[in-house]
Amino acid sequence: MFDNQTQIKKGRSFLFAALAMLASATAGATVVANIPTGTSWQQAIDAGNIVPSQNDAPLTQAAMAFYLTQGVPLQVMAATLLGDVDGVSDPDGNTVDNTLVMGWELPENDNLAIAWWDYRFDPTGNGTVNMGSGSSMIHFSVYPPVGVWDLSLELIDVNGKSRGWFRYGPANLWDTFWISPNGREQDPFDFYWNESLFDITQVLAVRFNESGMRSAPFFPSVGEGIGWNAWNSLQIKVPEPATLALLGLSLAALGATARRRREPAKG
Fold it and tell me: For the Ice-binding protein C-terminal domain, which residue ranges apply (predicted)?
């Protein structure tokens, strides 16, 4: 028979071991997208992982909630994608190679012209990724030149539901951003929207929207179309499946330890 003191010491040892397991459980991650380090932009386009917008395609609910705040007519345009473009330079003289450049036309009627590209985890458009852990992360670097009205990122689930982060009037410089898919408002983004019943455990695609108007010209022009901007990198990380299982075991161990410490000693 163990007395209370012995039981507490054993409980503490078990607790420390469980905490160590918990710490290690949060460290491992699977990189599900890594451009241009893991694969080039053009390879991702050719494989069907990167897909451009088409004329008059429907906006998600998250995008509608954002763009309607601008109080102008909206028009979705087809995007033209150029992979692995070198020498994209901002006004500060920061020149970047191996970029993805997106171009789109601006209507004569001066509607707000919206274009995008989707990163699909599965080129067939069916496979999804579980981003339900708080340790999931999206990292990207982008250059929005003069003329771009917004900078945004959306998640789209298997049922077409959406969650998005939007920023008005981004600076005319190369910049790097981190988005936690499970976070709400995140700096420097001004607007957040989460559609009812959006399923973070079945994310089909990550979408990058941009927009512009003919009355706000783009300088300089790069690629095809009048509107344009460029991305330098995209990396998406989610916890490894084995890591999630280990996390569950760690939490179970913590719960068992706590229960034993509450039980009176027998004997």
Answer: 238-261
